[in-house]
Amino acid sequence: MDFSFRDSREGKLCEALCQAFDDFDPAAMATACMEFDRISKLDAWKTQILVKVKRNIEEMGGGGVGGEEEEEVDLT
């Protein structure tokens, strides 16, 4: 409901996470989290939840783009 949220760092993180989830792309999710974490550290609870979501994406078939081997990014 807050129009300024969409342009905030948190809003952009939420958009990136939703897009990664819709695309079944765990690498995009990890990248979005890393970029956010560089400036504002994610606390342990948020990291734990995001790791669970990332694992669910991987289990649903999001192993990477085009079968290419991608570097694993640890969110912990």
Instruction: Kindly state the number of beta strands.
Output: 0
Classify the helix fraction into a percent range. 55-70%
Average pLDDT metric: 83
Our estimate of the beta-strand percent is under 5%
Q: Give the N-terminus to C-terminus distance in angstroms.
A: 31 Å
Order of helices and strands: HHH
Poorly predicted regions are 65-69
Tally of helical segments? 3
> Main beta sheet: strand number and arrangement?
none
What is the radius of gyration computed over CA atoms, rounded to a whole number of angstroms? Answer: 13 Å
Give the overall form.
globular
Q: What is the structural class? A: mainly alpha
Describe the structure.
The model is unreliable at 65-69 (pLDDT under 50). This protein has a domain at 9-59. α2 packs antiparallel against α3 (44-59). The chain is mainly α and 76 residues long. It contains 3 helices and no strands. It has helices spanning 9-22, 26-39, 44-59. The N and C termini lie far apart (31 Å).
Key features of this structure:
mainly alpha; 3 helices
Summarize the SSE layout with pairings.
Layout: H1 9-22, H2 26-39, H3 44-59
Helix pairs in contact: 1-2, 2-3
Please provide a brief summary of the model:
The chain has helices at 9-22, 26-39, 44-59. The protein is mostly helical.
